Amino acid sequence: IASFVKVCHRNDPNLDMCARQSLLAMKDLFHYGIPELFIPPITPLVIPEIKMDQDSGAIYLHSTFKNITVNGLANYTINELHINPKKMRLTLVMSVPKVAMDAKYVMKGKIMMMPLMGNGDFKANFSDVELSTLITAERYIKNNSLFAKVKDVKVQYSIGNAELYLSNLFNGDEALGERMNTFLNENWSSLSNELRPMMETSISDIVRASATKIFDTYSFDDLLP
After folding, report:
1. Is pLDDT of 105 > 90?
2. pLDDT above 80 for 153
3. What's the burial of 58, exposed, middle or buried (CB within 10 Å: 0-12/13-18/19+)?
4. Relative orientation angle of helices 188-217 and 174-186, to the nearest 10 degrees
5. Cα–Cα distance, 165 to 122 (Å, whole number)
6. Which long-range contacts (CB under 8 A, 24 or more apart) does 76-83 make?
7. 95 contacts 136 by C-beta, under 8 angstroms
8. Terminal CA-to-CA distance of the chain, rounded, Å?
9. Which residue of 1, 23, 86, 134 has the fewest CB atoms within a 10 Å radius of its CB?
10. What string of H, E and C letters represents the secondary structure of 109-145?
11. 156-194: per-residue pLDDT in tens?
12. pLDDT score of 186
């Protein structure tokens, strides 16, 4: 494993503290990405595309977001970090004071019985964001070495406040677009609750992909000797 990574030992009684110190020591590196750990730059974090299809509850919506940039993630604070080597579980809770997101969007459907259609720029500012990640894995042998395989990844989040803006709604009808943006901002919390399961699944898939690459490359003894 890369020399700049502070390696922790699984039998260390202070394993959680060691892991926290290791993660904090790499904080500046996250800005530019850590190729050795398959971690992309997070200033900004660039996500090529996310598709969301929701047809239950108060939302019937088909949307695609492309060229997504997310800023602010590097200003994270670790609220909780726990590693259980025997059960192969990692729990990480982080908070970020402000997150800004920009993307190109295509959207069509209904929100709370109101039609929504647009194709343009999406901008969002979130504050007091908390992310909770639980990764579970299982052991297996490869090339006579002990490896870990991702079994499940579950990411949950909460948002303190949100400001949203979508350009070119309703084929550029400014009056309708302004009313819809006002409606979205007044009801962002209810909308967030409706969209949360789908968004948490999308984020979990991204985390799973990175964790899988790390576990496939480094043995369990490399990661936690």
Report:
1. yes
2. yes
3. middle
4. 80
5. 6
6. 76/27, 78/20, 78/23, 78/24, 79/130, 81/16, 81/19, 81/20, 81/23, 82/16, 83/8, 83/10, 83/15, 83/16, 83/19, 83/224
7. no
8. 11
9. 86
10. EEECCEEEEEEEEEEEEEEEEEEEEEEEEEEEEECCE
11. 999 999 999 999 999 999 999 999 999 999 999 998 888
12. 96
pLDDT band at 59 (very low <50, low <70, confident <90, very high): confident
Q: Is residue 32 part of a domain?
A: no
| CATH number of the CATH domain containing 86 | 3.15.10.30
* Residues ≥6 apart with Cβ < 8 Å to 35: none
Check if the beta carbon of residue 21 is closer than 8 Å to that of residue 14.
Answer: no
Give the structural domain span for 69. 45-223
| Number of domains composing the chain | 1
Is position 1 within any domain?
A: no
State the Cα–Cα distance between residues 64 and 202, nearest whole angstrom.
12
Residue 29 lies in a domain: no
195 domain residue, yes or no: yes
Q: Span 129-143, mean pLDDT? A: 96
